[in-house]
């Protein structure tokens, strides 16, 4: 009993320690509770921690710089299923515009150049390799004028378009002098002429559509005037023209005016352009002009340069009789009048029409009501057949000039034409994505620089991520998935941004290695039970450049599954907590694709 008694001094020491521990715990839980309930400064404090730890703790083995050669790549650590490289013959593979598959479809109305995706049992389950010698594209604006030959080794356009100043081959690079079929003296001088008629300098014109874009020099030089151009051209005998555009750092997709509606909402573009695009505008009852009318904003402009404009001078060059060439232009004039477009300019090879700001009365007066489309939703266009009818457009939306337009509440929201989106929702969305973008920039300090020129947002919502990044150093392809509950792409265009509809169960309409950074907000939760996660990740890998980055936001369970797959895809990844702390179920997965190119061993295996 005596041995069990404590010395009075020991008892006092133990009591003192107990009091200190209890007081310490009380202080800790008081501070923790105050922090959790305050709601202020939480994101900033977490972001500060991320910023402090990024360089040495959180992302110790992720490198965002480029290296231009395989010697700069890190050793691959495989922890799950290893996905093997495809054969080098697939280095420029475009699954839904595959040349061999296209030949099985009719040529009438360019059907064979439309999207024809592989069946499930035809999909590749391998990594698309970069060609040997692949290097990081030049930074903007140098990339506008030069593209490394190794990245797109196709010389046919240098011969076919030699006299038109499209593209030249010099040493180990392609040079783009800025010329085009209808502007051999350069796109800049051509745009100057357009600017004498169209207000290109004051922010009125922000979004443009270039049909049959070639190597997209028109869109490239419009960027000098703060105008974003969605350029498209088919994958055809003009090898890799869209790939050249994207290598130059210019927005472009593979596409064609055929039988399916364009993947853009109605009233999207401030200006549409065709420079010898060889689209038969006068055919099919004016169906192609009607489709341009659908996506052209009231008050917008349509520019046509090349056939049949100036037919009197060129009809023999076009191998057409004078009468036939004149009749072609006459039919276009009649269709434009039916669409309530006013011709405001014609000089030599260029003609410009302006769509009336309000065409409803015009259509009634001209007796065109029978030609109006009966569709319920003019923005429901994915794989929908084009029609020879006029889309009702209503009154012209009162858009502010850019850049005010970027943050102003879009007319679709103000007018109640965006179900489920209120003005308050819009304002809050902007705040949230500014906060998220700041976090990304703290984690990857190169975001916002010319390191990431071509950016894709796979689930763009209201376009607030792109708005938060807005910079002349980069552009964002805002994708609105076709299965989204809310169709928000029209809002994105009203903000002065560009984007496209797409279903991520299929391949995107682009060449491999065309994006520097891919962002996806809850994209895998959206497609859960819709299609295979691995298929979506392989498509992301196909379109992502070597040493490109991926930022995904989703629930921790979803991201852990994604992380397990990408560890076998030559990606390095790290999972980060949400800005508001570790108890938020939403997490951030940051990944970097390693640099690698096709090797002889892989091709022979």
Features:
alpha/beta, 17% strand, seven-stranded mixed sheet, disordered N terminus, 605 residues, Put_SAM_MeTrfase, globular, golgi apparatus, transferase, 32% helix, 21 helices
Which helices and strands appear, and what pairs or packs with what?
Elements (H helix, E strand, L loop, with lengths): L7 H31 L3 H17 L40 H4 L39 H4 E3 L7 H5 L7 E3 L2 E3 L11 H9 L11 E5 L5 H6 L5 E6 L7 H7 L4 E3 L14 E7 L11 H9 E10 L5 H4 L7 H17 L2 E7 L2 E6 L4 H6 L38 H4 L3 H4 L8 H21 L10 E4 L6 H6 L5 E7 L7 H6 L4 E4 L12 E7 L1 H4 L6 H11 E12 H11 L4 E7 L8 E8 L6 H5 L1
Parallel strand pairs: 4-5, 4-7, 5-6, 7-8, 11-12, 11-14, 12-13, 14-15
Antiparallel strand pairs: 1-3, 2-3, 8-10, 9-10, 15-17, 16-17
Helix pairs in contact: 2-15
In short:
This protein is of the alpha/beta class.
The tally of strands reads 17
Structural class: alpha/beta
The biggest sheet, with number of strands, parallel, antiparallel or mixed sense and barrel status, is: 7 strands, mixed
Tell me the overall shape: globular
Low-pLDDT segments, ≥5 res? 1-13, 32-58, 68-79
Q: State mean pLDDT (0 to 100 scale).
A: 88
**Can you count the helices?**
21
N-end to C-end Cα span: 81 Å
- Estimated helix fraction: 25-40%
Give the DSSP E fraction (strand runs of 2 or more residues): 15-25%
Taking strands numbered 1, 2, ... along the chain, how are they ordered across the largest sheet?
6-5-4-7-8-10-9
Radius of gyration: 28 Å
GO molecular function: methyltransferase activity
EC number: 2.1.1.-
Keywords: Glycoprotein, Golgi apparatus, Membrane, Methyltransferase, Signal-anchor, Transferase, Transmembrane, Transmembrane helix
Family: Belongs to the methyltransferase superfamily.
